[in-house]
Amino acid sequence: MSHPVRAAIVGCGNMARNHLPNILKQTETTEIAVLCDPSEESLEKTAKVFAETGHPLPPTEPDIADVLAEHQIDAAFIITPHNTHYGLARTCMEAGVDVLLEKPMVMNADEARSLMKVRDETGRLMVVAFNGSLSPEIRESVRLLRSGELGKLLSISATVWQRWGPGTTGKWRQVPEISGGGFMFDTGAHMLNTVADLAGEEFVEVAAWTDNCGRPVETLAAVMARLASGALVTFHGCGETVRTCKSDIRVFCTDAILRTGAWGRWLEVQRNGEPDFVPVELPPSLGAWEQFLAVRSGEFANPSPPEVGLRMARLYDAIKASAARDGRPVMCD
Question: Could you identify which of 22, 56, 59, 256 might form a hypothetical disulfide with 286, taking C-beta atoms 3.0 to 4.6 angstroms apart as the criterion?
Fold first, then answer.
């Protein structure tokens, strides 16, 4: 039997602490070999997660260079501010380490293309931690839609909401040079990516309106788009509402309506002649790390490669371009 995957957790902020409880349930497949973060405060908070779950605290390092020089690792889960993703992912792959990289993958399309090239040159695995792409629910949704049993795709309606603006005030997520964008580039990235997965075709035209609500980055967005087949898509993002983080995505086909969320987690289908939606039961998932290991072991093809990071960057760029022109439609390259 092969040894557990020796993992480095790179970045120990709030999102890392969200992932860790599920990762620590996977001791048969995963050994967290090292934690990497320059912040003593973040490391102290992360140490509490290990203590509360009864796991010993691994070694800690302040810098990725120290991790790669001093520790033998097989894979890195990079969970850091957005503007650091490109450099950290590139460094890890060039050192022979597989990478699970938090979304959004990079800051722009040029960085996305460069990481695709590094992936190809090094032969390492790179998976973007889009919970939707990695979820059994979205993979099953894609299968149903591509099979033709739901009929022809007509339109998609997607909404995501969160008290994002008030909750990120004064933090790096509202600093454009670090975050790369606002609510639609952060939480909204899950929605954009999942809809693109479900659509399975290129966006050709986008019209968008955004509102910063007095903040440095956008927190509200309304987007209309057209797919290559002519199917229509709407996106709605509200980052100024009540203290929740939820989404609703509906795919309208000629023979059925499919309903799910930006992160997967649940799936319902209402077929022609049925009075209501019927849940689709699927095996539970322990999240992005479990799915990353399944891809790494060859259980299924990578559903979230760097190409999805490029796809999402191009879509967000089109949204920004149209919003800057007060909603005038822009054609997508």
Answer: 22
